[in-house]
Amino acid sequence: MREQKDEDWKAFFRKTVALIVLWNSTEKIVRRQGFHGYHHNIVAYALAWLFHLTDSRIDMERIWQKQAVGEPITDVLESMSRIVNEHIRNTQQNVTEYCKREECWDKLKARDFVLPGSIRGEYISESSCGKYDPTISGENKAVEFCKNKGSKGWLELYKWLREGRFLTPNERFQSFNMVNFLQKGKEPPVALSILCKRIWEEAEIRGWNYTQ
After folding, report:
1. Do residues 94 and 196 share a domain?
2. End-to-end CA distance of the chain
3. What is the pLDDT of residue 24?
4. Across the strands, what pairs with 99?
5. pLDDT for res 189
6. The pLDDT of residue 2
């Protein structure tokens, strides 16, 4: 939060709460349909797909004001969740692990889904200040921080953490996970980058000192 010096915190708070309202509403839709497990995966993918197809134009301020999600949105999410449920299970891999792969998301985005015209009534108006962008600068900084350290830096950190038994086994593993992404020339995921940036900084407190 300290990095977001220019953030409009009132608007940020309202949009964050609106996203939680939207998540909870979607979770109820998914549970109502009686899918066998993977509820959180279905919710996450259905919402991501909705934001993708609507170009993030859903009016989060309206959801905040009503503290409820409009019927056109819930109707679309109900249809989407059924497709997502079938989509994530259509694999020979472990479903949870498959959901973490870019391949799963790319294949979903490639599917045809026609949004009903009624959804446009839930969009931000043209006179609004702009569409909701869930990406914040702190996330971008975390990704750049990890990329700048390079795969060699993360490999050395992993060895140092393992030899000294610093931090948790999972945190040590995540630092090695970052090595794999960077060695393959892939953009590291935001969530992994935020975690690894914190791991690097905590390691420095414990005496880690790396010079490229």
Report:
1. no
2. 29
3. 95
4. none
5. 87
6. 64
| Contact (Cβ atoms closer than 8 angstroms) between residue 132 and residue 153 | no
Q: Output the pLDDT for position 146.
A: 94
- Is residue 127 domain-resident? no
What pLDDT, in 10s, does the model give residues 154-174?
999 999 999 988 888 888 888
Phi, then psi, of 50 in degrees rounded to 5? -60, -50
Counted domains in the chain: 2
Range of the domain at 75: 9-122
Q: Is residue 193 one of the residues assigned to a domain? A: yes
- Low-confidence stretches of the chain (pLDDT < 70) are 1-7, 125-138
Asked if residue 132 is part of any domain, the answer here is no
* 14/69 same-domain check: yes
* DSSP β-bridge partners for residue 123: 58
pLDDT confidence of residue 5: 62
Q: How far is CA 149 from the centre of its chain?
A: 23
Domain boundary among 80, 98, 122: 122
Shared domain for 44 and 113, answered yes or no, is yes
What 3-state DSSP class applies to 123?
strand
Instruction: Evaluate whether 56 touches 72 at the Cβ level (below 8 Å).
Output: no
Distance (Å, whole) CA 168 – CA 66 = 43
